[in-house]
Amino acid sequence: MDRLYASVITKIVYMRVTVISPDIHTYGAMLIGGVLRDAGYQVDLKRELAAEPGIPVLLSLYSTQHLMSPDIKAFVAGHRGRGGAVYVGVPVSAAPEIVLGELSPDAVCVGEGEETVLRLMAEGPHEGIPGCAWMEGAEMRFTGPAPPASIHRPLPLIPADIGSQDIRGASAYIESHRGCIGACTFCQVPRFFGREVRSRDLEDVLAEVQAFKDAGATRLPVSGGTGSLYCCSPDGKVNDEAFVALLEGMAAIMGPKNISSPDIRVDCISDTVLDAIRDYTIGWVFFGLESGSDRILRLMGKGVTADDAMKGVEACREHGLKVAGSFIVGYPTETVEEYEATKDFITMNSLDDVFVSIAEPIPSTPLADFVLRTPREENPVYMPHEGEFKSLHLTEAEARSFDLQQHADLFKPGLHVVTDEVFSAYLAGVRKDGEDVRRVTELLFSYYGGR
Question: Which terminus of the chain faces fewer neighbouring Cβ atoms within 10 Å, N or C?
Fold first, then answer.
């Protein structure tokens, strides 16, 4: 009788699972939660590092910084010590050896994990599961990345508090497709999902939008790398009709002021695409402009020139759209003159908003390999700044980020004053960014520096 009771209790515990994405409910965590729910599991979706003893946990980690988090390391060790399995998945899985080495989970789901997660929960890691990496003694066993998952899947598991979440002004991001035709060397999307675009059926996307609205979501952007690539041709030609139908359908559910299509390539726009963004969204386009230097753009694998970018900004303005741009500074070998070209680009284009980051070598990207080949003394992330901000003790990359953010404020439409509070916020931000990038860089050197 005792054995039977123990068996029943084990089964009840086993059919429960906790999915954790630290701090925010990521789309990936909600998606995996929906897959597990439809497979019969009772799923707890959480943003905090907490789970009942013995319950399997899937950690959905979206930042390389998570791999160095003392809190996450302590949670994994503690939960495993209390008899619960811990599996790690999504973007950080591109470098399973680092995940296993830093966090010591039971296994890593490598690649698109919808099918891998289900088998791991039922069977535990073994050679017959694609997309699985785990340790046997001191040796890593790896079955290779999981094949692309089906683009048809259950509705995500949407938490009751989704309406209170704010990710860059949005409750959540809707995945309209997977894959990207681009080859940006700093980006993980084409390495994780491939360069072939796989688009979801429109009715499936709209059913998901309705489900998010019903759960309380207030604003939903189109996601998938480059929004306008939805249903594009195999050679990457934009499908204007499909993209318009997508935005129009989403706006009919949420209202046009609650839809955005933020991430667009300057070479993936048309008059029809821009009109649709104007008519069915909040009216903003977010370009990854990155640099005003053509040499740096080539190093980044952008596939466009600074002149192409300028024409894209002009086209948006002609269609009555506001334009935001992201820029990356401190790319290995970026010279002072090339950085000044980026400042000049901002001066000439007066962007409505600007986001600046320091080049971060995400594992398994070409940028990570480039950083490993670049001596520290030639990497702006380490080079001490000797110019205008020398007294602030910044690196060259930090100084460029700090300078560019203030410079961009001078050329935004309207009055943008760099007050003492703004100055201090920018300074604290670039110091943290610089430290984070160096931590990732040192992590890479610790695992791959001998190659």
Answer: N
